[in-house]
Amino acid sequence: MALLEIKNLSVGFDTSSGLFMAVQGIDLHVNAREVLAIVGESGSGKSVAMLAVMGLLPKTATVTADSMTFDGHDLLAMSSNQRREIVGRDVAMIFQEPVASLNPCFTVGFQLEEVLRVHMKMDGKARRQRAIELLKQVGIPTPEERLNSFPHQMSGGQCQRVMIAIAIACNPKLLIADEPTTALDVTIQKQILDLLVGLQAKHGMGLIMITHDMGVVAETADRVIVQYKGRKMEEADVLTLFESPKNAYTRALLSALPENATGDRLSTVADFMKNEAANAGVAP
Amino acid sequence: MSEIVLEGRNIIRDYHVGGGLFGKDKSVRAVKGVSFTLERGKTLAIVGESGCGKSTLGRILTLIDPQTSGELLIEGKPINIAKDTVTPELRRKVQIIFQNPYGSLNPRQKIGEVLGEPLLLNTKKTAAERRDLAMQMLIKVGLGPEHYNRYPHMFSGGQRQRIAIARALMLSPSLLVLDEPVSALDLSVQAQVLNLLADLQDEFNLTYVFISHDLSVVRYIADEVMVMYYGEVVEYGTRDEVFANPQHSYTKTLFAATPKADVESIRARIEKKKAAA
Amino acid sequence: MTNEVSPPVPLAAPKSAGRMARLSEFWFYFSVNKGAVIGFGVLVFLMLVAIFAPVLAPHAPYQQYREALLTPPSWQTGGNSMFLLGTDAVGRDLLSRLIYGARFSLFIGLIVVTISMVTGVILGVLAGYFRGWVDALIMRIMDIILAFPPLLLALVLVAILGPGLFNAMIAIALVLQPHFARLTRAAVMSEKNREYVVASKLAGAGHLRLMFKTILPNCLAPLIVQGTLSFSNAILEAAALGFLGMGAQPPTPEWGTMLAEAREFILRAWWVVTFPGLAILITVLAINLVGDGLRDALDPKLKRS
After folding, report:
1. Which residues make Cβ contacts (< 8 Å) with residue A160, sequence separation at least 6?
2. Of A19, A28, B257, C72, which one has the fewest beta carbons inside 10 Å?
3. pLDDT tens track of chain C, all 305 residues?
4. What's the gap in Å between the CA of A88 and the closest CA on chain C?
5. Are C201 and B96 in contact (CB under 8 A)?
6. What residue stretches are annotated with the ABC transporter domain (chain A) (predicted)?
7. Phi/psi at B36 (5° precision)
8. In this complex, is the C-beta atom of B127 within 8 Å of any C-beta atom belonging to chain C?
9. Which residues in chain B are contacts of A185 at CB distance < 8 A?
């Protein structure tokens, strides 16, 4: 059975120019022990769908879905309090800006232990122990000393490691990573991706990777959903997607990668969509 | 041998970090003796991670910040802005494009004014001439005359970067410093902007200094590549040399860390994973 | 190439359309705050009252009706329908004086805000742009001004300059001006390092152009908010000075001065103190509500751009 299953999810926002549909009728599911990547460009609504699941959208958003179940619980039927309880414990999320995601006024140790105190109801000593263990797991050297550091004393990569430690503190069943490496350097990105995938395999979590980077998808995903302007374009396992993409937009995206350049010019999505439309005789 | 547009000889840049009220001032060396030459019409890519001094070097080349020591020659003439004032002729030779297309355009300035400003301040052209030139430039970068009277917030990131490129080209510079010009853009838009840059380079015989952290983009656009690590140049050569046979261990690490999006790598990864499970 | 250039007529259309769109977007965010809309309505009403005072007022503000001293409002026993809100101690119609008083209050607000904003913004831009000793000098002076209780400082200044409405306005402007200077300085400092400023510098813009043409227009949103809030502050302080006898001098129908004149009748004739007090309260409240609404409407805009 799927860990998270969503059918026909739509999210709209009230704006000054009327209702804006950020996500339109998306179905998705993630299994335990699976890495699902959601790829799309900015404005494709890739983050919004996950924020809707987490209940993190502002009040101007209207969320509708035919069904939304997590680990056997029907999320639509729950009160927001019940939902927060489940979501806070069993689903964790990490964001793009690691330095901004940590509170600059408190030490890393305090923030990590706070999560343990609230969700796991551990006492002081056990918390300390567990915090050190978690920092070790995410590969931070000398975790005992690091517990007393403030976020600004650490690099972006280390902050992201701490965010991951906080996310896995309660042994979540599902981890959602929203562009976790976009703000990081390539060498750090590699380390963080390896860490995420390693932890996912070790703990048997489901992992949803939201990204715009085809490279990140290629390096991490089992299954991929390609999203464009709030709609799902294609869903396939990663090898199939890269080997024989079915959808025109996916093909366009892949051919826009500089490493796939043929000759002097890069083919762009706009060119591609135009060609597709001309070939098929329909508008894209 | 074609003409050398830009040359750096042992360029060094120190920053002074105030040590607060009682601490001592510290000096941080951001660029540690960089030397290079760049021919007209070529692209030099400066690659490195954040904090490696590549943007600092870019700002020195664009005459925004002075070098602490070392020589900078533009079209053979030495220039040090700490001592000399920048003449309008020199100013028009070098222009820069920034990474963030949302921060580099004045939100209260219409596109027409954005493009007209360099002409207004550096030439004696009339309002009508400025307007004509701005309109022509808009068409050249793939926008239209109807965009002349709009404000930056009405444009997408890619369109804004086109406007920034247009602004940089208004004074017909010979050298363009591109500081991560596509890293804030979506993949499909990135391809369009890279194509545009290539076209403009051919048309105006422009020389590019392309600062980037993205090796796949560098491989696509560069003629020569310079890899920087903590303010030092650890690798400098033609693109093919550097990509085929990297010498320094940092360069090798960088290549190894770059995600591979080809089918063989994915297949290898998945098989490895299956074996582990 | 030139033949591709569109004629000016179609170009003018998107321009005005863009402005209309901006205005309607602004109104959308402003109108979310219901209090702000009410405040705005009251403010517009007050402005109309001030402009059409001679038409609206039933009597001349200085006309004394000797036979009707301290007449209560018309709905009370002993009231006279000639004087809707009653009369004061020398028989002047309270309603007419309040209507004319609106002119003074709005005039005071306008002048004070203009003076303090212009000087404060110029000083703030200079301090934020040049930093160093210019900044230190300007900001220490501002700190000294801010160290005094505002009303006390205004009183001292008026005492030096001599009592009177004009001097009171200068004093209040001086007291309010450091807030603008500080706000401008902070905004300029954060805008100064933005890339568009560097780009403009590279295009050859000089200091003056960078300061006032490139940077300043992008710092306006918080200044507009501060301006409205200072507007109400100015009215309040002018009323306070008037009440203390240091502002507008009798028989000027300024609200604070009216309160001062009515002090001794506070127990006998409630209306002579209540109505000017209410007028001040309502005006200040309305302007503050508008200020809050402006803050809500302008701040997210800053974030989005």
Report:
1. A94, A98, A180, A181, A184, A188, A192
2. A19
3. 334 333 333 333 344 556 777 788 788 878 888 889 999 999 999 999 999 999 888 888 888 888 888 888 888 888 788 888 888 888 888 899 999 999 988 899 899 999 999 999 999 999 999 988 999 999 999 999 999 898 899 999 999 998 888 899 999 999 999 999 999 999 999 999 888 998 888 888 889 999 998 999 888 888 888 898 898 889 888 888 888 888 888 888 888 888 888 888 888 888 888 999 999 999 999 999 998 888 878 765 444 43
4. 29
5. no
6. 4-254
7. -170, 165
8. no
9. 49-50, 213
pLDDT at residue number A279: 61
Please answer yes or no on whether B145 and C4 come within 8 Å at the CB atom. yes
First to last CA, chain B: 58
DSSP string, B88-99: HHHHHHEEEE-S
Interface contact B195-A266, CB threshold 8 A = yes
A187 Cβ under 8 Å from any chain B Cβ: yes
Predicted complex ipTM: 0.83
In chain B, how many domains are there?
A: 1
Q: State the average pLDDT for chain A.
A: 84
B213–C contact, CB cutoff 8 A: no
Is residue B186 less than 8 Å (CB to CB) from chain A?
A: yes
> C: neighbours with 3+ CB pairs under 8 Å?
A, B
Q: Tokens in use for B148?
A: 């002349």
How far, in Å, CA of B165 to CA of B160, rounded?
9
Residues 6 or more apart whose Cβ sits within 8 Å of residue A226? A39, A40, A232, A233, A234, A235, A241, A247, A249, A250, A253
B180 has a pLDDT exceeding 60: yes
Kindly state the DSSP code that residue C268 receives in the 8-state scheme: T
Minimal Cβ distance to C204: which of B88, B96, B167:
B88
- Chain B residue with Cα closest to A192: B257
Q: For an interface test with B, which of A97, A159, A179, A185 has the most B Cβ atoms less than 10 Å from its Cβ?
A: A185
CATH of the domain at B61: 3.40.50.300
Minimal CA separation from C191 to chain B, in Å: 10
Count CB-CB contacts under 10 A for residue B237.
16
Looking at residue C1, what is its pLDDT?
36
Of A238, A267, A269, the CB nearest to B266: A238
Q: Which amino acid is at B141?
A: V
B19 versus A73: which is more confidently predicted? Answer: A73
- Residue A241 phi/psi, 5-degree rounding, is -60, -45
The reported pLDDT for the residue numbered A116 is: 86
Single-letter residue type at C83: F
Whole-model pTM over 0.90: no
Chain C contact present for A16, CB below 8 A: yes
B116-159: pLDDT as tens digits: 999 998 888 899 999 999 999 999 888 888 889 888 888 888 88
Residue B252 domain boundaries: 2-273
Give all chains having 3 or more CB-to-CB distances under 8 Å with chain A.
B, C
Asked if residues A228 and A41 have their Cβ atoms less than 8 Å apart, the reply is yes
Provide the pLDDT for residue A278: 64
What residues 96-135 of chain B have any CB closer than 8 A to a CB of chain A?
none
Question: Strands (DSSP E) along C185-240, which ranges?
Answer: none
Give B256's contacts in chain A (Cβ within 8 Å): 190
The residue to which tokens 């309305």 are assigned? C286
**What is the DSSP pairing of strand B43-47 with strand B207-212?**
parallel
Q: CB-based contact (8 Å) between A159 and chain B?
A: no
Nearest to C11 among B63, B88, B148 (CB): B148
